[in-house]
Design goal:
The chain is mainly alpha-helical and 189 residues long. It folds into two domains: 76 residues, Winged helix-like DNA-binding domain superfamily/Winged helix DNA-binding domain (Arc Repressor Mutant, subunit A); 57 residues, no CATH class. It has eight helices and two strands, in the order ααααββαααα. Helix 6 crosses helix 7. GO terms for molecular function: DNA binding; DNA-binding transcription factor activity. Keywords: DNA-binding.
Length: 189
Protein backbone atom coordinates (compact mmCIF):
# COMPACT_ATOMS: atom_id res chain seq x y z
CA UNK A 1 0.00 0.00 0.00
CA UNK A 2 1.32 3.44 -1.00
CA UNK A 3 1.83 5.97 1.77
CA UNK A 4 1.63 8.84 -0.68
CA UNK A 5 0.54 9.15 -4.26
CA UNK A 6 0.08 12.40 -6.11
CA UNK A 7 0.21 13.76 -9.62
CA UNK A 8 3.42 15.63 -10.31
CA UNK A 9 2.96 17.96 -13.27
CA UNK A 10 5.86 19.24 -15.33
CA UNK A 11 6.66 22.71 -14.00
CA UNK A 12 9.87 23.47 -15.85
CA UNK A 13 11.57 22.40 -19.04
CA UNK A 14 15.26 22.94 -19.71
CA UNK A 15 16.25 22.69 -23.34
CA UNK A 16 19.90 22.35 -24.18
CA UNK A 17 22.32 20.16 -26.05
CA UNK A 18 24.27 17.45 -24.24
CA UNK A 19 27.50 19.42 -24.87
CA UNK A 20 26.05 22.56 -23.31
CA UNK A 21 24.66 20.60 -20.36
CA UNK A 22 28.14 19.19 -19.69
CA UNK A 23 29.68 22.66 -20.02
CA UNK A 24 27.28 24.01 -17.40
CA UNK A 25 28.09 21.29 -14.87
CA UNK A 26 30.47 23.76 -13.23
CA UNK A 27 29.02 26.90 -11.63
CA UNK A 28 32.14 28.93 -12.47
CA UNK A 29 31.30 28.51 -16.14
CA UNK A 30 27.80 29.90 -15.56
CA UNK A 31 29.45 32.93 -13.94
CA UNK A 32 31.78 33.29 -16.92
CA UNK A 33 28.79 33.21 -19.31
CA UNK A 34 27.12 35.91 -17.25
CA UNK A 35 30.25 38.08 -17.31
CA UNK A 36 30.68 37.68 -21.06
CA UNK A 37 27.03 38.34 -21.93
CA UNK A 38 27.43 42.12 -22.01
CA UNK A 39 31.09 42.74 -22.80
CA UNK A 40 34.09 41.07 -24.35
CA UNK A 41 36.84 40.14 -21.92
CA UNK A 42 40.30 38.63 -22.03
CA UNK A 43 41.27 35.62 -19.94
CA UNK A 44 43.05 38.02 -17.60
CA UNK A 45 39.94 40.19 -17.32
CA UNK A 46 37.74 37.16 -16.65
CA UNK A 47 40.24 35.97 -14.02
CA UNK A 48 40.17 39.35 -12.28
CA UNK A 49 36.37 39.56 -12.36
CA UNK A 50 36.05 36.04 -10.97
CA UNK A 51 38.36 37.04 -8.13
CA UNK A 52 36.21 40.11 -7.50
CA UNK A 53 33.21 37.75 -7.29
CA UNK A 54 35.00 35.56 -4.75
CA UNK A 55 36.24 32.79 -7.07
CA UNK A 56 39.92 32.17 -6.50
CA UNK A 57 40.97 30.30 -9.64
CA UNK A 58 44.32 30.14 -11.39
CA UNK A 59 44.44 31.87 -14.75
CA UNK A 60 45.11 28.49 -16.42
CA UNK A 61 41.91 27.15 -14.82
CA UNK A 62 39.98 30.15 -16.13
CA UNK A 63 41.39 29.48 -19.60
CA UNK A 64 40.24 25.84 -19.30
CA UNK A 65 36.70 26.93 -18.35
CA UNK A 66 36.55 29.38 -21.26
CA UNK A 67 37.78 26.68 -23.65
CA UNK A 68 35.11 24.24 -22.41
CA UNK A 69 32.46 26.90 -23.07
CA UNK A 70 34.00 27.70 -26.44
CA UNK A 71 34.06 24.01 -27.42
CA UNK A 72 30.37 23.76 -26.45
CA UNK A 73 29.62 26.69 -28.76
CA UNK A 74 28.59 29.02 -25.94
CA UNK A 75 31.51 31.46 -26.13
CA UNK A 76 33.18 32.96 -29.18
CA UNK A 77 36.18 35.15 -29.88
CA UNK A 78 34.71 38.61 -30.34
CA UNK A 79 37.84 40.66 -30.96
CA UNK A 80 41.54 40.19 -31.57
CA UNK A 81 44.13 42.85 -30.76
CA UNK A 82 47.85 43.02 -31.31
CA UNK A 83 49.61 43.09 -27.97
CA UNK A 84 53.35 43.03 -27.33
CA UNK A 85 54.24 40.75 -30.24
CA UNK A 86 51.24 38.49 -29.64
CA UNK A 87 47.51 38.53 -30.00
CA UNK A 88 45.05 39.39 -27.24
CA UNK A 89 41.73 37.56 -27.51
CA UNK A 90 38.47 38.98 -26.23
CA UNK A 91 35.70 36.46 -25.61
CA UNK A 92 31.92 37.03 -25.61
CA UNK A 93 29.09 34.76 -24.66
CA UNK A 94 26.46 33.95 -27.26
CA UNK A 95 24.43 32.21 -24.56
CA UNK A 96 22.54 33.76 -21.68
CA UNK A 97 21.77 31.67 -18.62
CA UNK A 98 18.88 32.86 -16.48
CA UNK A 99 19.14 31.38 -13.01
CA UNK A 100 16.56 33.05 -10.82
CA UNK A 101 13.76 32.10 -8.47
CA UNK A 102 10.44 33.89 -8.79
CA UNK A 103 9.43 35.64 -5.57
CA UNK A 104 6.95 34.05 -3.22
CA UNK A 105 3.40 34.63 -4.45
CA UNK A 106 4.47 35.14 -8.07
CA UNK A 107 2.34 32.21 -9.29
CA UNK A 108 -0.76 33.86 -7.83
CA UNK A 109 0.19 37.31 -9.11
CA UNK A 110 0.90 36.00 -12.61
CA UNK A 111 -2.03 33.55 -12.91
CA UNK A 112 -4.00 35.77 -15.29
CA UNK A 113 -0.90 36.54 -17.30
CA UNK A 114 -0.14 32.81 -17.51
CA UNK A 115 -3.67 32.13 -18.78
CA UNK A 116 -3.25 34.80 -21.47
CA UNK A 117 0.17 33.45 -22.47
CA UNK A 118 -1.16 29.88 -22.67
CA UNK A 119 -4.10 30.96 -24.82
CA UNK A 120 -1.93 33.02 -27.15
CA UNK A 121 0.70 30.28 -27.42
CA UNK A 122 -1.95 27.68 -28.19
CA UNK A 123 -3.04 29.80 -31.12
CA UNK A 124 0.56 30.35 -32.21
CA UNK A 125 1.40 26.62 -32.02
CA UNK A 126 -1.69 25.81 -34.11
CA UNK A 127 -0.59 28.42 -36.67
CA UNK A 128 2.96 27.07 -36.73
CA UNK A 129 1.73 23.53 -37.37
CA UNK A 130 -0.78 24.68 -39.97
CA UNK A 131 1.77 26.74 -41.89
CA UNK A 132 5.04 24.91 -41.09
CA UNK A 133 4.13 21.48 -39.70
CA UNK A 134 6.00 19.64 -42.46
CA UNK A 135 9.23 21.50 -41.68
CA UNK A 136 8.87 20.95 -37.92
CA UNK A 137 8.21 17.25 -38.41
CA UNK A 138 11.10 16.91 -40.91
CA UNK A 139 13.59 18.43 -38.45
CA UNK A 140 12.22 16.29 -35.60
CA UNK A 141 12.67 13.12 -37.70
CA UNK A 142 16.35 13.96 -38.26
CA UNK A 143 17.12 14.41 -34.56
CA UNK A 144 19.20 11.83 -32.76
CA UNK A 145 18.41 10.43 -29.30
CA UNK A 146 19.91 12.24 -26.33
CA UNK A 147 22.00 10.41 -23.77
CA UNK A 148 19.99 12.19 -21.07
CA UNK A 149 16.48 11.54 -22.36
CA UNK A 150 14.98 8.07 -22.54
CA UNK A 151 11.65 9.46 -23.71
CA UNK A 152 12.12 11.50 -26.84
CA UNK A 153 9.99 14.60 -27.44
CA UNK A 154 11.57 15.80 -30.66
CA UNK A 155 8.71 17.93 -32.00
CA UNK A 156 8.19 19.57 -28.61
CA UNK A 157 11.92 20.35 -28.51
CA UNK A 158 11.77 21.90 -32.00
CA UNK A 159 8.79 24.05 -30.96
CA UNK A 160 10.51 25.17 -27.78
CA UNK A 161 13.63 26.04 -29.75
CA UNK A 162 11.56 28.06 -32.22
CA UNK A 163 9.86 29.98 -29.42
CA UNK A 164 13.13 30.50 -27.57
CA UNK A 165 14.86 31.75 -30.72
CA UNK A 166 11.96 34.10 -31.42
CA UNK A 167 12.33 35.55 -27.90
CA UNK A 168 16.08 35.91 -28.50
CA UNK A 169 15.37 37.76 -31.76
CA UNK A 170 12.98 40.10 -29.93
CA UNK A 171 15.57 40.68 -27.24
CA UNK A 172 18.41 41.32 -29.69
CA UNK A 173 16.33 43.78 -31.74
CA UNK A 174 15.35 45.67 -28.59
CA UNK A 175 11.64 44.85 -28.76
CA UNK A 176 11.60 43.29 -25.27
CA UNK A 177 13.43 46.30 -23.84
CA UNK A 178 11.02 48.69 -25.58
CA UNK A 179 7.97 46.85 -24.27
CA UNK A 180 9.32 46.57 -20.72
CA UNK A 181 10.41 50.24 -20.75
CA UNK A 182 6.79 51.15 -21.38
CA UNK A 183 5.65 49.22 -18.30
CA UNK A 184 5.68 50.34 -14.69
CA UNK A 185 8.51 47.96 -13.77
CA UNK A 186 10.28 49.40 -10.70
CA UNK A 187 13.42 47.33 -11.29
CA UNK A 188 13.95 48.86 -14.74
CA UNK A 189 14.49 45.48 -16.34
Amino acid sequence: MALLESEVPIREVVTTTPEKAKALENDVRAKVLDMLADEGMTIKGIHEELQRRGEEKAETTVRHHVNVLKDAGMVEIARLEEAGGGTRKYYRSNTRVFSYDLPEGADETLAGTQATATEELESLVETLYTEHGDEIEAVAREMKPSEYCETQHYEEFVLRELLNRALIDLSETGVLDDVSAGSDDPSGS
